[in-house]
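Journal club prep — side note

Before the paper discussion, L.F. wants everyone to see what a predicted structure for a comparable chain looks like in token form. Sequence:
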Amino acid sequence: MAGVKALYALEGNTQKLDGGAMFGNAPRAMWEKWAPPDALNRIDLACRSLLVETDDGRLLLFEAGIGAFFDPKMRERYGVQESSHVLLESLAKHGFTHADIDAVVLSHLHFDHAGGLLSAWQAGSPPSLLFPKASFYVGAEHWQRALNPHPRDRASFVPELNELLEASGRLKRVDKSGVSDLSPLVSFRFSHGHTPGLLLSEIAMPGGPLVFASDLIPGAAWVHVPLSMGYDRFPELVIDEKRGLLEDLAARQGKLFFTHDAHNACGVVRVDEKGRFRTESLAVSAVS
């Protein structure tokens, strides 16, 4: 069975989004202690990816961040801070290019998690699909949501990206079993509270699993169980799913990878003396 040779936290394009939307049911007096807002009430957010290098020579990328496909007007609307494709720059710092990647696992197809699959915006030119040899993994149920979105989240999807993924011939839809050709190194479970069919990736590690929970737990602050985002479709379900995942990881010395946390890429799940969940910050390179 293939194992993990190395892990890399790859920074992508960053965002500034409304803190009230990101912290949903929490009052500002609480959340501003975790994420100080700017004059426009926006907080700093990462769009971070996880790269797994396996000991049999494969490169598995978990999400692609928001990327740089937006035109300048849309980039300003969604608070994207950089015009260049930062994920590609991060890959290059480790000696890789997008053409080296063998698999891209997409928790879901909202633009801040999948937009990095597209080339950077150029006036007069449509975006192209990057990662020319990669297979693209997405939950089968969520794929249907992306093709037929609800008005509540239609603006979060990129129809052109869906078309390019389908046309690539390399799209792999993960069914309810959670089994794929990445098993057993990577196993999947599903979450439905943020968006139907969100794919949670668990990477088998000797010292306890590493889970890419995406928008179910986007950062260390959201480990607080009652907390949900304004973007969540079903907030009460998010809370139930989050509790179940955290209980499981705490029992197995599990770690969480945070895609949106501006400061922490990874944390070990713990339970404090009052029975509340928390995480201890951990460098991704130290996960074992």
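L.F.'s comment for the group: Helices lie at 19-23, 28-34, 72-77, 86-93, 111-114, 140-147, 159-168, 235-251. Keep this in mind when we get to the figures.
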